[in-house]
Amino acid sequence: MNKKNETFLDLNLDSQIIKAITESGYSKPTPIQIQAIPLLLEKRDLLGCAQTGTGKTAAFALPILQNLIKDNKKLVPKQPRALVLVPTRELAVQVNDSFKIYGKFLPLKTAVIFGGVGQNPQVKALASGVGVLVATPGRLVDLMDQRFVSLANLEVFVLDEADRMLDMGFIHSIRKILTYLPKKRHNLFFSATMPPDIEKLAGTILDNPIRIDVTPVSSTVELISQSVMYVDKEQKKDLLLHLFQDKTLKRGIVFTKTKHGANKIAELLSKNGVRVDVIHGNKSQSARQRALEDFRAGKTRALVATDLAARGIDIDDITHVINFEIPYVPETYVHRIGRTARAGTSGIAYSICEADERSLIKDIEKVIGISIPVNREHPFHSKSVEFHTGKAPKIHGSGGGGRNSNRAFGGSNQKKSSFAKRKPRG
Fold first, then answer.
1. From residue 109, how far is each of 106, 134, 154, 356 by CA, in Å?
2. Which residues, other chains included, contact 257 with Cβ-Cβ below 8 Å and sequence gap of 6+?
3. What is the pLDDT of residues 250-291, one digit of tens each?
4. Residues 6+ apart with CB under 8 A from 234
5. Are the C-beta atoms of 316 and 338 separated by less than 8 Å?
6. Range with the lowest mean pLDDT among 255-264, 273-282, 329-338, 353-362?
């Protein structure tokens, strides 16, 4: 790690980007950001063996934003200047939200497109041209076929989670998209694993790239007392209220997927005598800051938050994290539970899981490398929901923990090496 680049100021980023980063509550860049950002500002192609929880999104978003505003080209109708290709709708929304946060003070339009919803609003967003387009492969190909989007003058191409793309059967869509890209472009390629077929795909996209390998820090997760509670959907709220009867739950964060869900849970807790506040994207910066200060000062016992709003929370003595809804992206789980077990204190993480979230728990266990014990001692345990086999340890709420050094942008250990030069094709 370069000792000189210990703050975002050291990375020669635009003052308006620094302002947005600071306002969002971030302080220090992570190792992948320290190494990747200077290279990407020089428009070097990059091959990153990295997962979502390593700070990867900011590592590519910040320099992309800076390069786009530096070149300051006029937008062309239907033509994005930068394209970030991701495998799922959920990740597309998260990445787009990140670009909007970091580019808050920049005159740069962003847009996100994905399937499963009507295309008209997306077509309208693309009509006058955008600086950054975040897209899933299927919907992008569909809109390209209808001539609602063109990649003829694309400047930056990012392929994110390449191995997951292949697992989901997107290889044909990706190959089609590559044929429409201009030969001269800046390329970024990320994959959690790097088997031969992924390296081969990278070779068709990248030109003399720098390779960065990133390993997420998982030991901090292992220090937190985790458990999953299986419950029927109609009893989730009853279980949440039951957890707040525990006197040891002195300061807890409850995570939901949506702003509407966060408001509903905050209302439920408040009606049942829990001092609570809520933070999400519809809250003003001042309202979010006030909620955090009240939470830090102990004026409120619970904070209900969405994932994006909770980024940058660094408050000691958070005793519990409760996942009222299981996140789609496993690395998001790591970020969530990392809000507890700080400064040498213990921490407890509960995950309230209903039937259609069972597979998400399996995905999380693969990423963190351990099996999350099942808590069957609560009064709402659902045997019909539980899918674990074998004997799982019984959990009675005791927590173990330690200092969690994984911050808002993620923590990592990494190395950098050169990657064989290959001519771009397609």
1. 9, 11, 15, 36
2. 306, 307, 325, 327, 328
3. 999 999 999 999 999 999 999 999 999 999 878 876 788 789
4. none
5. no
6. 329-338
| Dihedral angle, C-alpha 370, 406, 102, 84, nearest 10 ° | -30
Question: Alpha carbon of 340 to those of 26, 169, 252, 400: distances in Å?
Answer: 17, 37, 9, 11
389 CB burial (10 A radius; 0-12, 13-18, 19+): exposed
User: What value does the mean pLDDT take over residues 30-55?
Assistant: 86
Q: Mind listing the pLDDT tens digit for each residue in 178-214?
A: 999 999 999 999 987 788 888 999 999 999 999 998 7
CA 261 to chain centre: 19
Q: How far is CA 278 from CA 40, 57, 116, 183, 324, in A?
A: 37, 25, 29, 47, 14
Dihedral pair phi/psi, residue 304, rounded to 5°? -100, 130
Q: Which residues lie below 8 Å from residue 54, measured CB to CB, with a gap of 6+?
A: 30, 32, 214, 216, 331, 410, 411, 412
Tokens 């394209």 — which residue? 83
Q: Is residue 6 classed as helix, strand or coil in its secondary structure?
A: coil
Helix intervals (H) in 26-102 = 31-41, 56-71, 89-102
Contact 134, 86 (CB under 8 A): yes
CA distance 14 to 62: 9
Helices 89-102 and 56-71: crossing angle in degrees, nearest 10, is: 50
Q: The tokens of 63 are what?
A: 């320099």
Tell me which H or E stretch contains 222. Answer: helix 219-222
CA distances (Å), 21 to each of 311, 315, 399, 426, in order? Answer: 11, 18, 33, 35
Contact 350, 243 (CB under 8 A): yes
Q: What is the mean pLDDT of the chain?
A: 84
**Any residues with CB less than 8 A from the CB of 306 and at least 6 apart, and which?**
255, 256, 257, 258, 259, 262, 279, 280, 281
- pTM, two decimal places: 0.59
Two structure tokens written together for 220:
């901090």
Give me the phi and psi of 65, to 5 degrees please. -60, -45
Query: What is the rounded CA–CA span in Å between residue 189 and residue 198?
Result: 10
Structure tokens at 214: 């990133």
CB of 220 within 8 A of CB of 404? yes
Rounded-to-integer distance, Cα 277 and Cα 260, Å: 14
pLDDT at 22: 87
